[in-house]
Each structure stands twice: as C-alpha cells, then as structure tokens.
Amino acid sequence: QVQLVESGGGLVQPGGSLKLSCAASGSIFSINAMGWYRQAPGNQRELVAVMTDGASTSYVDSVKGRFTISRGDAKNTVYLEMNSLKPEDTGVYYCTGGGSDWRLWGMRYWGEGTLVTVSS
Description:
Layout: E1 2-7, E2 10-12, E3 18-26, E4 33-39, E5 46-52, E6 57-59, E7 67-71, E8 77-82, E9 91-98, H1 102-105, E10 109-110, E11 114-118
Parallel strand pairs: 2-11
Antiparallel strand pairs: 1-3, 3-8, 4-5, 4-9, 5-6, 7-8, 9-10, 9-11
C-alpha cells in the first residue's frame, strides 16, 4: 500500500505562483509514475501533469508553459510548480501514483487533495 500526502495549496491572486508538494510512503517500489489531477467545482477530474520514472512528462494543454512537474531525487516526492495562475486553475489538486500500466488502468494511489483557489 502507498500513502500520498499533499501540501502547498492555498489562495493566490491571478498571475501568482504556487508550488504543490507530495510525499509518498509505503510500498513506493510499485510506483512508476506520479502525477497531479485536479477537480474544479462542477467539473470532472482531469489529469494536469504526470511524470514517469524515465523522466517523461505530459501536461494538459491548458497548463503547458505555466506548470512544471518534477520529482525528488529519492523518487518518493513529486512537485507541481504553478506559475501565471488563472481563476480557471481553481480546484482540488490530487497527488497520484501508478504502475507502468497507469495509462491502461489508471492511477492506483490517490492523496486526499489540496485546495488551490485563484482569486483576487
């Protein structure tokens, strides 16, 4: 089993920056990819960014050029640096982890989420 704990959410003005962090514990050897999903009020959950063990990254189009995903040296942490934030970035951000088959079966592990609010 894997536990994921997020931190770093909060209130930020449009155009501002925020950095989310996530620490994984437990059977982290089973994780080959870590990423961030978000869910805005009234919307479906969407994949924001993902990074595999091979350092391959993928972003949803709406955040390309503004968000950067990275992982710590120990591979049990993942970060999401968010710049030029917009009100539409508001939502609950979930840290996730999955195996090498995550594209087929989805992410296996989920954190409880951290709220990001972009508002003036």
